[in-house]
Amino acid sequence: SGNSVRSVGICLCVALSVVLVLGDTSQEEADREAIRVFTQWIDEANLPLNKMEVAVIPGMRMGTIATTNLKEGQRYIAVPSKLFIGPETAGKDTPLGKELVKLARNFGPDPMHNTVFFVMQERFNPNSFWRPWFGVIPETFSTPFYFSEDELKELQGSTLVQETIEDKKRLKDKWETLDKKVFSRNRKVFPKDAFSFESYAWATALYNSRVIQLDMGPKGRVPTFIPHTDMVNSIESHDTTFIKYNARTDTADMFADRDVKMGEQIFESYGNKSQSEYLRFNGFVMENNPNDCVRITLPPPSDPSRMRKMQE
To answer: pTM here?
Structure first.
């Protein structure tokens, strides 16, 4: 009867709601446990300065909150280099380090892949020093690279569609070359599960969204994962420092770009990016982004002097 159909419909809706709520609750509980383990790891690292903590943030999964009042310009965190992951973290005497030395000798320095390979290895290492960090970073991404065909169609009319297609092809071609010339030749160092295409795509996405090109003085700009600071969510601001390397303390320091009250979420600018850049590399877009722009392609001017002026 009509009443029976309606009753079944209501029951199904209620059941689905319960499943969704339980799913959300289960994920939040898992996140809280991951944060607890990560926080303990950070505490044990004895940071010289730490006035923030990671927390579950509705709508953002995780973020950071101030543990005390902060004033604009105040240094509020200093992460020691022992927590960094960069091109030299694998060392030269470990199995992976020795392979990276060989690759550098044969193909030249590759700071990006040195860093990505180390992350791929450690993600599958149950005894990794960075295991608590892997517990709080994302397992998947909301960048167009991971969009379905139908989802990608929603971007039709923007340059992101073609850029995503090219990104996928470029990454697949690169991995196939690496798998043939590097990974498959030494499965002891490059096991299939840790160095699969899926793992390579994930580590590359992590690199694109979380690595800081840290100015380390004589070493120049070094691609660096900096645990804890990478949990800060983004907001547009006038701040241009974001993270600075402190040679005296051998730490990565952050300074508040606005006043923040204790218990409030801390935000930092990821750089003045367009919506397209945010979505392509970070997987989100900014509300009321003042730096949004549209990329257009123009034919090169016939006059060489005009070309030089454009490049300047």
So the answer is: 0.80
Say if CB 64 and CB 136 are below 8 A apart: no
Q: How far is the C-alpha of 284 from the C-alpha of 275, rounded, in Å?
A: 8
Spatial contact of 205 and 143, defined as CB atoms under 8 Å apart: yes
User: Measured between alpha carbons, how far is 56 from 233 in angstroms, rounded to an integer?
Assistant: 12
Residue 123, CA distances (Å) to 61, 99, 150, 185, 210 in order: 20, 18, 31, 21, 15
Query: DSSP strand E in the chain: where?
Result: 49-50, 52-57, 61-66, 75-80, 212-215, 221-224, 233-234, 243-246, 251-255, 267-268
pLDDT tens digits for range 290-304? 555 666 666 766 666
C-alpha angle 12-15-18 in degrees, rounded to nearest 5: 150
- Encode pLDDT of 197-231 as tens digits: 999 999 999 998 889 899 998 889 999 999 999 99
Closest CA to 143 of 274, 286, 277, 279: 279
Distance CA 261, CA 51 (A): 11
8 Å CB contact between 90 and 100:
yes
How far is C-alpha 75 from the chain's CA centre? 23
Place 2 in a pLDDT band, splitting at 50, 70 and 90.
very low
How would you classify the pairing of strands 75-80 and 251-255?
A: antiparallel
Alpha-carbon 142 to chain mean position: 11
Q: Which residues have CB under 8 Å from 169's CB, separation 6+?
A: none
